[in-house]
Amino acid sequence: MIIFILSLVLAIIWAAITGSATLHNLIFGFVLSTLSLWVVREQMSARGYWRRLGRILSLLLLFFKELALSAWKVAVLVVSPRMDLKPGIFAFPLTVDRDFEITLLANLITLTPGTLSVDVSEDRKILFVHAIDCSDTDATVRDIAGGFERKIMEAFR
Amino acid sequence: MIGTLVAILTALIVLVGAGFVLVAAIGINRLPDLYTRMHAASKAGTVGSGLMLLAVGLHAGDLATFARAIAGFFFFVLTAPVSAHLLAMAAHKVGYNLSELSVRDEMNEYRE
Fold it and tell me: ipTM of the predicted structure?
């Protein structure tokens, strides 16, 4: 049932993006989305879907807030006449261990205030993060672990 | 009336977006090393282009164009961090040092 609704939603998105909402195009979009959902059927678990959707949305909301804040901070920093920089790379111990969770976390970190993920250690336990203000790394690590990392765990586990 | 309001709103969004892109460009020029420059390029750049795409979608006033503009913004959000991350990682791998303002580099300690 969830799969059916999902492919219907994807079909509507398809119609919107291709720019014609004719019946033919909707049916074509429906076939396409059913096919692509079939390709990822192993990864789809319908269990706890709606609860999870709410948490994903809350993660998205937090992300947009942080993105706006971060662009504003960079803007203020760049146009201030004397730039006060204490840049550096610090190590962030990862709790999430699956590939896509690490990828998501790294992407989110890059788009939040003053931080940019650089590399993951080979054993996938440490994420190296470049920060524009490295004066208090412990607080930054706490912020990320209690914010994005916790939300990712809630949304995808 | 509504048309004028939408026009003013889109004009404002375009101006703010262009402002962020300008700031990103100034940042790339002023910041001391590649790593700090990537901050300006990935954040202010993404928000600036995103706002301008949003304005295009609003201005067109039909759902198809709006959906495509939003899709463009999402692809921007997905790809900009990846390129910033790859550039920073490549620079660190070939031994491009952080600027002398930097206070720490735990990645170097880990490698040694």
Answer: 0.74
Shared domain for A32 and A77, answered yes or no, is no
Question: How near does any CA of chain B get to the CA of A42, in Å?
Answer: 23
Tokens read off for B111: 């490698």
Q: Which domain holds residue A11?
A: 2-39
B33: which chain A residues are within 8 Å (Cβ-Cβ)? 87
Q: A46: which 2 tokens?
A: 């319908």
User: Tokens in use for A145?
Assistant: 């672990």
Whether A53 is covered by a domain: the verdict is: no
The end-to-end CA distance of chain B, in Å, is 66
- Residue A21 lies inside a defined structural domain of this protein: yes
What pTM was computed for the model?
Answer: 0.73
Average pLDDT, chain B: 83
For β-strands B104-105 and A88-93, DSSP reports them as: parallel
Domain total for chain A?
Answer: 2
Tokens representing B73 are: 């913004």
Residue B36 with chain A: CB contacts under 8 Å: 85, 87, 130, 132
d(CA A129, CA B42): 14
H or E segment to which residue B105 belongs: strand B104-105
